[in-house]
Fold this protein.
Amino acid sequence: MKHRVAGRKLGRTSMHRLALLRNLSTELFRHERIRTTLMKAKELRPFAEKLITLSKRETLHARRLVLRDIHDKEVVSKMFDTISSRFAQRPGGYTRIVKLGPRRGDNAEMALIELIGAETGKKAQAPAEGEGAEAKTADKKGAKGKAAAQPATKKKAKPAKEKDEAAPKKSARTKGATKTKTQSKGKAKTSGTTRKVGKSGS
């Protein structure tokens, strides 16, 4: 007979298992939705719901009892300020488990555990985000249209300017080259004449 074997060991010692549940519940209350294995989610559900029931008391003793398992003070303040007021009229069943199928690799059953009411806040934010995305896409389309119109005019104007500017530069270079050539020839002629004169005088 299976007496005194309730609960899942999860392949851990008792202290390791308690630390795991504390960490999972902390992240659950912080993000209101976490993804984990199905067995961990089933063990986490009663542990987290007892902490929510404690937070509904809103007393100093209840806060200290919650702080015994949740060591993040910001998360504890969120539990007593927002989560407890959300479930004030609810007698239990504060969490929901959604199966996600096997995990790729080790084929472990995955699940999504979330607080009841976490989906309403995300649905309210979704339309606002969608409107913002539509506005951004419209702005991007307008910017692309302007950018497409501007480069066409610039590309047509640039080649003519480059040709006009390139032509004088080439002519200036050729003129400078011819001047230097003529100057060097003249110097050579004068030097030759002086040498001849010198020889004739001697």
The radius of gyration is 42 Å.
